[in-house]
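= Protein in question =
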Amino acid sequence: MRPRRVIMLALAALALLASCNRGATPAVVNPGMDVTYSTIDGCWELIAWNGEPIEESTYCYIEFNRTEQRFEMWDNIGSMYADKHSGSFTIEKNEYGEFILTGTYDYGVGAWSDTYRVTMYTPGEEMRWESTSTSDTYTYARIEEIPELN
């Protein structure tokens, strides 16, 4: 066979293979550990927002209770005073293998402002939340307890 003909056959085979995957949904590979009610249980501190460290005077703490599927959150984002919110949360795994975190606030305030894809890194000391509707990302680190807030 001539070299030119071999190249043409190889290109045709590649085009045929590429067309077989058209329209297929790419597989998502979760690089971390499973995000479950057990692995998210406990206290967390927001340490980065969109890849930038949180300013020293700003904080957001969240405590998840796995048995009741409840959370309490304290933050001063956008305010000089602390806000406390509580509510319920759910974790589901979608068809792409992503762990999805959603929540609802108590006292009729409504749903969280967003839904998040969560990746937790082994051994569960850090997790990254990725908004499903914006480009915002949040990085949380596990802490022993929520500090005393003034």
Observations:
- The beta strands are 42-49, 52-53, 60-65, 70-75, 83-93, 99-105, 110-111, 116-121, 126-131, 137-143.
- Residues 2-28 have pLDDT under 50 and may be disordered.
